[in-house]
Each structure stands twice: as C-alpha cells, then as structure tokens.
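Next comes a single protein record:
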Amino acid sequence: MTGTCRAGRGGFTLIEMMIAVVVIGALTMIAFPRMRQFSDAMAVRNARDALANMMSQARSRALTRGAPTRVQVTQDSVWIEQQAGGAWSAVGVAEQLMQRGGLAYAGPAALTFLPTGTVIIPGGDEEVELAVSHGGHARAVVVSRYGRIK
C-alpha cells in the first residue's frame, strides 16, 4: 500500500466567505432595530419602576416619621426631601433616573406626602400621572390624592 495524498479542499473559497458575510450582515440589520426597541422599552420600564419606588418610600417615610415628605423630580434626577423644623432637607441619595438612555419625564416637579399618607396634588385633582418616555415607549406612575400608587 502506497501513501497517496487525497486532493481535497483545505479551506473556504472567497465566494463562500462573501456569502457568509452577507448573511451575517442581513441578520444584523434585521435584529439591531428590534434589540434597540427592546432596550428602550426596558429603560422606560426600569425608570418607571424606580420612580414608583421613590413615591412609595416617600409615603412610607411620611407615615412613619410623622412629617411631610416630598419627591422632587427634575429632567435628570429624582430625590426625596423631608420637612423638619419648617425647612426641607434631602433624604438619601438622588437617583439619576432620566440620564439612563435619554429618557423624558412629564409630570409635576414635586409631590408632597402628608403624615396621614395623603398627597398634595397641584391643581387639586384626584390623581396625578408621572410619565417616563423614550422612543415611542411610555410608562406612567399614577398617584391618587389618598396616596395610592399604581
């Protein structure tokens, strides 16, 4: 038996590599916008949940400490303040909610929770909506004048 060398392919041809690159490019073009939409939706949902959590913390603090507590919201951050001796002072750390992916906020600049758990809503409405949005996605926290947070 003599050792013969089989003639075979040792790799991929240029055309096969180009087809693979085109297929990968097409799949990427299809998947990227969907991934972006998913990312935007998650950022909005996370910011809405964090905002609702801050509202719950403020209400709980007003009830347990027996002092008015408010949530301050700006276009880039959210924080809790509590009234002591007629002056408002920040409690805890400000959250940079709106800087997470260019989110937009719509709602009042402050909501004050009284020691009874009720809320002072600007304009005297029954409830107020605090909305977070980005790229066609929007979520809202609704706070009733009785302090219920939805």
